[in-house]
Specification:
Blueprint lengths: L6 H19 L4 H27 L6 H17 L4 H20 L8 H20 L1 H4 L5 E2 L5 E2 L3 E2 L3 H21 L3 H11 L1 H6 L4 H27 L1 E2 L6 H14 L6 H9 L2 H4 L7 H15 L3 H15 L14
Antiparallel strand pairs: 1-4, 2-3
Helix pairs in contact: 1-7, 2-7, 2-8, 2-10, 2-11, 2-12, 3-4, 3-5, 3-10, 4-10, 8-10, 11-12, 11-14, 11-15
Amino acid sequence: MKPPRRAGPWMGMALAALALGLPFALQGNRFLAFVFGLTMINVLWAAGMNLLYGYVGLMPLMFAGIAGISAYGMVHLRGEGWSFWTAMPTSALFASAIGVLLGLPSLRLKGFYFTLCSLVIQSALTLAFIFFPKYTNGDTGINQIPPPSLPFVGPLTGLGHDLLLATLAVLGVAFVAWLVPTRLGQRFIAIREDDVLAATLGVDVVRTRFIAFFIVSLFAAIGGCFYAPYVGFISPRSFDVLVSLNVWLFVAFGGRGTVFGPVLGAAVLAPIPYLLQELQAVKDIISGVLIIVVTLALPGGVVGELRRRRVRRLAAPAPAASELPEQGA
């Protein structure tokens, strides 16, 4: 009897086809298409945070701050005459390097202490966005950010921009799916499970965390670069600690340490503030309640809970012969 095929690749291809097909289906409704584009950015961010939170076991609350450094840097470079396609990688790499330098002292920490340190860094970055108006325009923010352009096509708007974000999200999730089974990905998991044992077995824990933090910072930075021109406006509130907490909530709700759990979390939760605009006044309260519910009721997230139940069902002992119903009775 042949073993069943793994569902992962087929599920990945189905989700990729759905993500790339939805912009065409939503083309007639610009509001829903815009919500879809923002959701794709959050899918990319959730996939990135999942690498550090889900596979290494560290919760980076400075995630949004790194995205903000990249977004402001990209806007500044474009104001100097750079094209988006040169400003984006330059500012993303710069922001990732700054993020690693800021987080370097905390890479020897773990658990609550790393989270607390990253929260302090995020708070400092938010204050920097406010009190350096020469580069950020302070609380007023920067508006009328032009979209990226392609040769022979011109500025990307509407369907083209939505497809670009969908492709970006698909590539980000595919990268995580590729990385996890590699030797580096397995080192991430070993550190998450027991960093002391991993070090005993020869894993350089600090160096591996450094690599993971750089990759995650790159996810945050690239997402920030694409967020700014898509929305057309950025301010310090666009990259504050609540944004980091929301991305964490997507990962925790869907299932940390799984490839598709954060995708599910972002796809379900990210559109809610836009689809239910009348709840804007209490959206932070709703987020807080969701954090408590997820932490207490679904510590493994939706996908993690489904996986746990499946394992329990497969591990359940078969009924004894005396307990089977008699045939022909």
